[in-house]
Amino acid sequence: MSTSVPVQGWGREAMARRLAQDIPDGSYINLGIGIPELVARFVPDGRTFIYHTENGLLGMGPSPAEGQEDPELINAGKRHVTANPGAAYFHHADSFAMIRGGHLDLSILGAMQISQSGDLANWSTGQPGAIPAVGGAMDLVAGVKKVFVLTQHTTKTGEPKLVESCTYPLTGQGVVDRIYTDLAVIDITPAGFQAIEIAPDVPFEHVQAMTNAKLTPPSASLSE
Amino acid sequence: MSTSVPVQGWGREAMARRLAQDIPDGSYINLGIGIPELVARFVPDGRTFIYHTENGLLGMGPSPAEGQEDPELINAGKRHVTANPGAAYFHHADSFAMIRGGHLDLSILGAMQISQSGDLANWSTGQPGAIPAVGGAMDLVAGVKKVFVLTQHTTKTGEPKLVESCTYPLTGQGVVDRIYTDLAVIDITPAGFQAIEIAPDVPFEHVQAMTNAKLTPPSASLSE
Amino acid sequence: MINKRMPNAAEAVADIPDGASIMVGGFGEAGSPIELLHALIDQGAEDLTIISNNCGSGEVGLAALLKARRVTKVICSFPKTANSTVFPELYREGFTQLELVPQGTLAERIRAGGAGVKAFYTPTAVGTPLAEDKESRDFDGRTYLLEHGLTADFALIKGLHADEHGNVIYNKTARNFAPVMAMAAHTSIVQTAKVSAPGELDPEVVVTPGIFIDRVVEVPHPAHESELIAAGVSYP
Amino acid sequence: MINKRMPNAAEAVADIPDGASIMVGGFGEAGSPIELLHALIDQGAEDLTIISNNCGSGEVGLAALLKARRVTKVICSFPKTANSTVFPELYREGFTQLELVPQGTLAERIRAGGAGVKAFYTPTAVGTPLAEDKESRDFDGRTYLLEHGLTADFALIKGLHADEHGNVIYNKTARNFAPVMAMAAHTSIVQTAKVSAPGELDPEVVVTPGIFIDRVVEVPHPAHESELIAAGVSYP
What ipTM goes with this model? Predict the structure, then answer.
């Protein structure tokens, strides 16, 4: 393994574009706040995705033109949005009935840590004095059919986010299906982290080094 | 006690009118099928009642004019009705949220038997071979703030409906607040049946004789 | 491209297999999806479990499905009707089983099934024969029954107007069980008098958001049970 | 005669006592009943428990109520906001307690409280710190938590248009928690930009039926948090 050459993986937009390729036409999707929101910019040709925002809108559209913002039409990140043709408004209990009842196809979330068994930690560092806030993350991971994590492979200070077991408080146990990072696309399997694609020009060994658990390379069998 | 003179109590309409006097202005009411439906004809001057029908309408109005019937605008008894100004339609889970959640002020029901502790039996004779059918009666008695029973004092064959304990399968335990019959108005109290009014020209002794449990006369204290 | 429109009722119900559980909308005749039910009779599936408030009337719609001996179990609050002998005969014969559920508990169980609520505690039916064999528990001095969420393989419902995304609005008291059944079934099929392109329904007035609907069939002039019965129809 | 109209926000909240529990609608600024909250600040009640998804922003509306030291407990899913230090300071000081509830569990607990469902089993939060001290139970091989219905003494919500019977419609994502809070509070108070005589709202599009609403206040030009904050307002 060489770390003397700077390794450059996918950028944020490339990560979002890569994830979007894996979403089937007609999917109902909840986009988490932050990088996940970028996915909506990269819908593959010929596909239609319908976006759910947990504060009561199905069929969320892009940001409004400047001056067209409505303070009562916002998404879960409290940003101004629009409603597409075919949209519907509903109250919060109905919105989370969609989530908890398994009606959404895909939840795309950010992460602080993901364990090799699919545990997700993305709401609290557990630090004393921190203000706890959880929002809808625990509902999403418990209810949505598939959970994709879209995140940098490591923290800003270089700490691996993919770990044997999470040290931060959990959002859910065994809930993550797939992880998209700047370095790789990685499935959670019964055998742990299984890379299915590595970013161009990134050595597998580098991805493994940035991962705090065993990572199976793309060529190797899932069942080993 | 004399049974040699035929005793005539209130007629069906007089029973309904008597009950209507006891309903406060602005009450939300569910009317059971049969005699209870008559109450809507006798709203006292100056009062407004709002009728709920469990199949999804609040603000139910009277029967439509002939030729104006809509097969998709019916009440719980499957009769054609209308919607008053200020009405709202909603689905069945919301409708029974109103009932179970204690939002309705009054449920007026028919009865097969009422016990002195307020148990109600009004859905089944429990006969072998009978087709069981319960509808919303159990939800109404469990959820509505007050339950009034409007019924003949005895069955068509002269059997008392007010009894020490019900022999028919129960609709609910200790749920009835007051009973309006052709002979009397009777409260359920911790001490049992307490008559609060007797129909004109009906001897109290006759009402007691038609009641299969101790009945306290109107003048006597509740706390005796 | 999302378009849930099906060419006709027959294709909408074509894949319902023997043994399926099916929620059927309607309270009395209001909201009964007659054309979908008749297509299901034509299709031939049997050994069905039907979840519905009533068992139909006359010999059309749901009653006709029962009469055709396709239904071996009903989960229902009020199977009796004034003008049908279909269910009583099948029940007494032992061909069709009955799970009797109070109406509000039925609505709430269906909503819970659709909302991912596994079970809940309700005060309804405590102390009655319908509480037998059910878990109960006291909270704050009152007794409640544990009731379980209810789901089904299919829902057949009737709306007034839908769009191709599956958003639906209803007509008056024909709404009844349809919105919660749409939530609780794996495959929800709605017939509506009109089907439009997305954008024709105001997002503020949509009752059932399209995420709960899988298939939409336009039936421009739906029949009403009472009219068919008055006309002496016995289906098929 | 049914007329739930109140002359103004001050009279609508006049009887809220010290120690009351109050559900407050809104998600972010959408649906926040600013004028009712400001009337409550003027009114002076303290030792309040607030049930709301957020804790407000800036120093207006809900954040201003907290800043005035009237709130000793919040039941909330996301008390942090980018532009308010009010809650964090009161929380660290120990003046205001926090019961943190996942957003969907909060919505469902409120709906259950309004629907007479005493408690329910949900898969949300299993295996997390928010499951500590909660009963859990396995059904069909999966673990669920027991969560309890939530009610309150009062609800303060914001709609778009109401009638004198208390029927309410909302505006876009300002609907959020308001319909379930209206169900779950003993006394539900709504402010709307317009109040009409009964009959002006189409019964098919009413979102909150009047039975859930006790008081209606017309606030023709409601303020938005973001506008007040941009204008440098700190209430009172």
Answer: 0.96
